[in-house]
Amino acid sequence: MMLTKTVRRKAAPAGAAAAALALALTACAGAGGGGDSDPAAEGGGTVELTLATVNNPQMKDMEELKSAFEEEHPDIKVNFVQMEENDLRDAVTKDVATDGGQYDIVTVGSYEVPIWAGNGWLTDLTGDLESDADYDVDDLFEPVKDALTVDDSLYAVPFYGESSMLMYNKELLDEAGVTMPEHPTWQEVADIARQVDSDDVDGICLRGKPGWGEVFAPLTTVVQTFGGSWYDDQWNAQVDSPEFAEAVQFYVDLVEDAGEADPVSTGFTECLNNVSQGRSAMWVDATVAAGLLEDPESSQVAGKMGYAHAPVVETEESGWLWSWNLAIPETTQNRDAAVEFVKWATSKEYHQLVGTELGWSRVPPGARNSTYEIPEYEEAAASFAPITRDIMLAVNPEQPGVAPQAWTGIQYVTIPEFQDLGNQVSQDLADVFAGRSELAPVLERAQELAQEAGDAQK
Amino acid sequence: MTPSRLRGSLVTAVTWVLVLAFFFPVAWMVFTAFKPEHQAATVPPTFAPDFTLDGFDAVFNRDMLPYLINSLSASVGSTLLVLVLAVPAAYALSIRPVVNVRDALFFFISTRFMPVAASIIPVYLLLQSVGGLDNITWLTILYVGVNLPIAVWMMRSFLAEVPRELIEAAQLDGARLGTEIFRVVLPIVMPGVAAAGLICFIFAWNEFFLANLLTAQVARTTPPFLTSFVDGRGQFLAVLSAAATVAIVPVVLAGWIAQKQLVRGLAMGAIK
Amino acid sequence: MTVLMTAPTRRRPRRPPPAGSGRARGLAVSRALLWPALATSIVLTQIPFVLTIYYSLQRWNMLRPGDRGFTGLDNYVSVLSDGSFLSSLGATVAVTGSSVVLSTLLGMLFAVLLDRSFLGRGVARTLMITPFLVMPAAAALVWKWSIFDAATGMANWGLGLVGLPPVAWNTELPMVTIIVVLTWQYTPFAMLILLAGLQAQNKDVLEAAAVDGAGALRTFGSITLPHLRQYVEIAVLLASIMLLQVFDPIAIMTRGTGGTKTLSYLLYERAFIGLEVGEAAAYGVMTVLVTIVVASVALRTLFKVFSTEGVGR
């Protein structure tokens, strides 16, 4: 692979310069060779791995540190393809579902892993991981690992895991003379947000960007703690229930009154920017954000943040459970090399490497128990590591809401149709955020779509 | 100053203001590309930044070069192929007698009307079955399909301008077909070929939809690669602007230099 | 694209072909010249479309690989009973229509302004064509993050300068952002074509009109505009062909929210986000049917314009 690639990249400009068709065609043919994985390469030459990942900070760190892996494994080269979360999902799902074989390693969420494993799209990693004592597979965070296990086989390993929590800027809250309880209710949070909100500072930042993994991650947890759900335990859609509507209306109103100006553009990244530049006073989102907010290099609010459990209404906890995981598609031609990299990027040594090279607050959280026993990490992450761990162990993916449900998962419904359903409803919701549409017709259509998807499960 | 001279200067001033307003987004992008990251997205905007090449540095550290080379291969390759196919076809349609000229022309242009998206599923699945995903040769071939109709139409208009006497004279001389095309016709329509080539090159270089869907890494071209500069770690506007600046340079320069060809090409040869 | 429509009627006879055996030989040679391009086009565009029809009759969600089979017209029933197709058709018409109209009007303005001779005209023209050359993906990214960003964008800063409140562009006015970007990109295109039209005007006629004492506006209205008609037709037609397929700014800026889900984006979304192969294919077939109607109207115009072998002689 390496060879064909080098040939192409040298030949292509020659084709351009010469403008001779024959030459250009040769150059193109050379390029084509680069497209296929050459099994022969695995024997002797360099193996090139293509890794598709989301453009989150921890993954950027991984790319920055990959040279350490490549030095240890001179015969393996890892190419990162980074995309926005929505784009990543589209690209990877399409590739894996069609046996496209363009990626050797994919970054997938805990939503996808059981579905994909059930379809036979991911390779079983159990043997590779258990046979390696140094890797210590039992050290992986239990609730996260459970979500990645199908019939006792592990199909992906967590790169980092997270729940959600409330993050607030202590300075801004102090100025307004309010204090945050450790277990706030949504009503308390909404009151504080409206109180703190001013011309310069938003009271709160909540995702509004379309996409089931964007706005519907926090919003589904809000629905659940308000007593609503997508489905009951018989796969009857519950989107038209008063609780669902009440929760969404509450969320939209809160954003309208005290939230960011441009909700439909706002996802995790945008909120992170707002909060870390002191433009938002509070934020309910992934616990993993704390490490980024506490990084003085990129954040102006490091050391000024407070953390509390995700706000609740009817339930005890309202945090979600999520992990970004590395998995290897069945279609890869380079499985052995891919396993090597996956193990490296999720190992204890990698956590040490991040800590020493980039700073201890940037260690990928929520993946390994041992991370929480590293003294340097405990110190650097003192303000958020204990609470992150508490929440992750406290949430209940079997029944996150008030009523029992037929699937395991908190901020999503673990059925293949959910991503399409969530995406379509979230697009309609953009009209509600903008005031172009009332909530009722949006939820009516959502109920229909949800029922269609629910019927497929019965 | 006479009133009419005054009015003239006024119109000139208005013209310049409007032109600069239109050019502003490009100028601002290039300007932002030379800013340090922390001055790129500020309120109010930073007009006197500490100029730096860090953005461009970061762009090439992220290994943009292979993507540019992929774009170049696909654009140049598809343009050459398109011309090789389109010039003879257009010649047949405009100079040599062919039945159903209109049907053929109609067919070509109708292929350009349909959204590429409508048959993207079979294209994707066919490529997947022959191992043609993430492969620059196949992307090049698809670009041929997209640009061929435009080139045929353009070349036909240009060829129609060639005086028939010239060709007839060549035929009477017993000149062979090859001679007829290469010695007599081609020199006359060379500017037209250049125009067609330029347009095909621009469209292929800028193409996003197919490139985004059908390539992942090895054959990924510049347009989909640009979107990866939107960074989850915070500020990215300077690097994004630098990458965008690099990405548009080839086509913008080509268009600036060949303005005359550009207008004829864009109008598919309808304008002399 | 599918072909089977009749070409518009001929409006004038073709040149008489050479007589006798020369004609037969000529035909054979011509076919040989035409054939490679025609075959390439057929293979690359017709075969996929035939397959699209086949897939549209299949029940196939890629996320359920086990459950696949022939389903008759079910996909069409669900496509037609769902409102998405019509609303996307509306979005396509709205986005394409307003962008084409605005580009042509602005293009006309710039063409007239840049037809005058003034200091730096060449530079002004060069700057003016640039937006059309900018890679659409780059344009969409720069407009989204640099201009329309609610917090740090230049648009809101500009509004602030004149005392207007900031706008949450992507939330409140997604359609406007798309149309602005497309108009920005296509105004130079319209301008170039209309400018060529202005330059091809018979200067004697204009001078005569001036001598007769006709004002500039009247001359423009009664002489220049009629002369430009064909150029406007070309500009509108070609811009429409290109804009009907618009995808990049929608994928990058709005993701189909707020009435910007054009047919291209809908097809992409059904196929590669919904992963509903059968349904997406049915949408594709429907789109092609609609396109054929639009195209046959547009193509009549096109043939009229082009049958004169170009304008502006």
Essential attributes:
heterotrimer; A: alpha+beta; D-Maltodextrin-Binding Protein, domain 2; 2 domains; 5-stranded mixed sheet; 3-stranded antiparallel sheet; 20 helices; disordered N terminus; C: 313 residues; mainly alpha; MetI-like fold; two-stranded antiparallel ribbon; 2 strands; 72% helix; 2% strand; flat
Provide a descriptive summary of the structure in words.
The complex is a heterotrimer of chains A (458), B (272) and C (313). Helices cover 47% and strands 12% of the residues of chain A. Chain A is α+β, with helices and mostly antiparallel strands. In chain A, helix 11 crosses helix 12 and helix 19 runs antiparallel to helix 20. Chain A starts with a helix and ends with a helix. Chain B is 72% helix and 0% strand. Chain C has one domain: Orthogonal Bundle (MetI-like fold), CATH 1.10.3720. Helices cover 72% and strands 2% of the residues of chain C. A two-stranded antiparallel sheet of chain C has the order 1-2. In chain C, strand 1 and strand 2 form a beta hairpin. Chain C starts with 20 loop residues before the first helix and ends in a 6-residue tail after the last helix. Chains B and C meet through helix 1, helix 3, helix 4, helix 5 and helix 6 of B and helix 1, helix 3, helix 4, helix 5 and helix 8 of C.
**Number of helical elements of chain B:** 12
Mean pLDDT of chain B: 88
CATH superfamily placement of the domain at 62-224 and 246-266 in chain B:
MetI-like
Q: How many domains is the backbone of chain A divided into? A: 2
Which value, in Å, is the CA radius of gyration of chain B? 23 Å
- Give the assembly state of these chains: heterotrimer
The percent range for strand residues of chain B is: under 5%
**Would you give the CATH topology of the largest domain in chain A?**
D-Maltodextrin-Binding Protein, domain 2
Kindly state the number of beta strands of chain A. 10
Count of individual helical segments of chain A: 20
